[in-house]
Amino acid sequence: MISELQSIGSTPSFSVMRPIQGVATRLRRLVGSAKARPIPDRLARFDSPEFLAKTESLADPWLREHALNVLKDGYTVIENAVPEKIVDVALTTFSEWKERNRQRFLPEFYKQGCFLDRVVNFQNVFDEFKALFACNQSLVLQDYLFGSPATCYTSLFFEAATQQAIHRDITYFWTCPAYMYFGI
Ligand SMILES: O=C(O)CCC(=O)C(=O)O
């Protein structure tokens, strides 16, 4: 979940830079946007001794436990974060959508035979998937750590899991201010 994104483009070669800069300057004048500049690499707002002390004295034991887990270990496990019924409805919606569209899928969409590999932003189309975010108990924790309501930026659904090695996605989700995203 992330708040605000700023994209970082690759540097164009010198020969195309001047015309592109000219267009960008004119566009900025038209829409009144600020000139793009690097995002300072500051710590996350919740990454400070003061925030840790505040969290240690939280009255709500659930929030205190999970917030401290995130601050100390970088993650926490929230059992039953989404009601089972909402998960079942989302899975049924997915299965029905898959069946309805079977003829449209190319062979390379599948992994291990019959599993769809990478379904992006299903929540933009199906309310049943929106509920997985909106009714997720982790939102209380995220809102506390962000200090403002979390927003769903994007979702990926891998029917057969991603099978990726442990990695960091920070270069893809660089936020302004920095480090304002969570994967759930
Ligand atoms: O398929 C992708 O975009 C990568 C997904 C990923 O890195 C992740 O789920 O952590």
What do you see in this structure?
The chain has a domain at about 80-155. The protein has helices at about 15-30, 50-55, 60-75, 85-100, 125-135, 140-145, and strands spanning about 110, 115, 120, 155. The chain is built from six helices and four strands. A hairpin with a 3-residue loop joins strand 1 and strand 2. It is globular. The model is unreliable at about 1-20 (pLDDT under 50). The termini are close together. Helix content is about 40%, strand content about 5%. It has about 180 residues and is mostly helical. The strands form two sheets. Strands 1-2 form a two-stranded antiparallel ribbon. Strands 3-4 form a two-stranded antiparallel ribbon. 2-oxoglutaric acid (AKG) binds near residues 118, 156, 162, 164 and 169.
| Neighbour order of strands in the largest sheet | 1-2
Bound molecules: 2-oxoglutaric acid
Strand residue content: under 5%
Overall pLDDT:
85
The largest pleated sheet is described as: 2 strands, antiparallel
Q: What Rg do the Cα atoms give?
A: 21 Å
Choose one word for the global shape.
Answer: globular
Measured between the Cα atoms of the first and last residue, the distance is 8 Å
